[in-house]
């Protein structure tokens, strides 16, 4: 596990190591500022960390605990639910939603669960095709309709099918065209309402997928989605390809939301639960 996160964060870790000599044990505030900026931590958060620190020399341990404190919201408690467990996956196009759904589905399947996907991004034919291919590849069921059909009807049918066939997990894809924000907000709200109608108290978890290579610009996207429908947790993708891993701190801190998993590659297996201790240690050790 540790190796996975280490490899996937190697670009961010390299960026940090270029400013943090390995054997150095204490840092001045200016040095800390450089380190965190290099990892793409947002300036406002860096200032907060530094303002709270009274010592002139900051040790690695203090820096470690400060970084961990910004990830205080990363623990997540699963809600009480009656099966099937229904998850709604939201995020802008290209963030890695479809790939992430396949990763989550494979994880559940490997735990012995019966999984069904709902191809709720009915706006893009490619999204329906892509998700159908993933379902086939990893061997899980899917409910898909033609492009242009009502996405909430797909959500309803998926949950209905899951209930009648005793599935454990329902994962519903959604559209991600943030440029038509009002339409998207209405569509997502409707899907949420219909989920509750099909299976009271669902969706049990709404997950926002964010592209880790976007660094801090993902924060405004995340805020938009959170305001639109309310998000319970985040999955950050493509951390393998970026030196901007430090934005994880800013995202978790700005949104006060837990980071549930991180995507570490393009395959369905490239997916790990987010562990804040491992994450911080990988960056600093
Ligand atoms: P969607 O439009 O949000 O559904 O995005 P896709 O799932 O189609 O992903 C967009 C691109 O990002 C594809 O080329 C994926 O292979 C790639 N991708 C998704 N997740 C990851 C990841 O964790 N790491 C890397 N390197 N690529 C990823």
TrEMBL record:
<keyword id="KW-0378">Hydrolase</keyword>
<keyword id="KW-1003">Cell membrane</keyword>
<dbReference type="GO" id="GO:0003924">
    <property type="term" value="F:GTPase activity"/>
</dbReference>
<keyword id="KW-0963">Cytoplasm</keyword>
<dbReference type="GO" id="GO:0005047">
    <property type="term" value="F:signal recognition particle binding"/>
</dbReference>
<dbReference type="InterPro" id="IPR042101">
    <property type="entry name" value="SRP54_N_sf"/>
</dbReference>
<dbReference type="Pfam" id="PF00448">
    <property type="entry name" value="SRP54"/>
</dbReference>
<dbReference type="GO" id="GO:0051301">
    <property type="term" value="P:cell division"/>
</dbReference>
<dbReference type="InterPro" id="IPR003593">
    <property type="entry name" value="AAA+_ATPase"/>
</dbReference>
<keyword id="KW-0472">Membrane</keyword>
<dbReference type="InterPro" id="IPR036225">
    <property type="entry name" value="SRP/SRP_N"/>
</dbReference>
<keyword id="KW-0132">Cell division</keyword>
<keyword id="KW-0675">Receptor</keyword>
<keyword id="KW-0547">Nucleotide-binding</keyword>
<feature type="binding site">
    <location>
        <begin position="91"/>
        <end position="98"/>
    </location>
    <ligand>
        <name>GTP</name>
    </ligand>
</feature>
<dbReference type="GO" id="GO:0006614">
    <property type="term" value="P:SRP-dependent cotranslational protein targeting to membrane"/>
</dbReference>
<feature type="domain" description="SRP54-type proteins GTP-binding">
    <location>
        <begin position="258"/>
        <end position="271"/>
    </location>
</feature>
<comment type="similarity">
    <text>Belongs to the GTP-binding SRP family. FtsY subfamily.</text>
</comment>
<comment type="function">
    <text>Involved in targeting and insertion of nascent membrane proteins into the cytoplasmic membrane. Acts as a receptor for the complex formed by the signal recognition particle (SRP) and the ribosome-nascent chain (RNC).</text>
</comment>
<dbReference type="InterPro" id="IPR027417">
    <property type="entry name" value="P-loop_NTPase"/>
</dbReference>
<dbReference type="InterPro" id="IPR000897">
    <property type="entry name" value="SRP54_GTPase_dom"/>
</dbReference>
<feature type="binding site">
    <location>
        <begin position="173"/>
        <end position="177"/>
    </location>
    <ligand>
        <name>GTP</name>
    </ligand>
</feature>
<protein>
    <recommendedName>
        <fullName>Signal recognition particle receptor FtsY</fullName>
        <ecNumber>3.6.5.4</ecNumber>
    </recommendedName>
</protein>
<dbReference type="GO" id="GO:0005737">
    <property type="term" value="C:cytoplasm"/>
</dbReference>
<comment type="subunit">
    <text>Part of the signal recognition particle protein translocation system, which is composed of SRP and FtsY.</text>
</comment>
<dbReference type="GO" id="GO:0005886">
    <property type="term" value="C:plasma membrane"/>
</dbReference>
<feature type="binding site">
    <location>
        <begin position="237"/>
        <end position="240"/>
    </location>
    <ligand>
        <name>GTP</name>
    </ligand>
</feature>
<dbReference type="GO" id="GO:0005525">
    <property type="term" value="F:GTP binding"/>
</dbReference>
<keyword id="KW-0342">GTP-binding</keyword>
<keyword id="KW-0131">Cell cycle</keyword>
<dbReference type="InterPro" id="IPR004390">
    <property type="entry name" value="SR_rcpt_FtsY"/>
</dbReference>
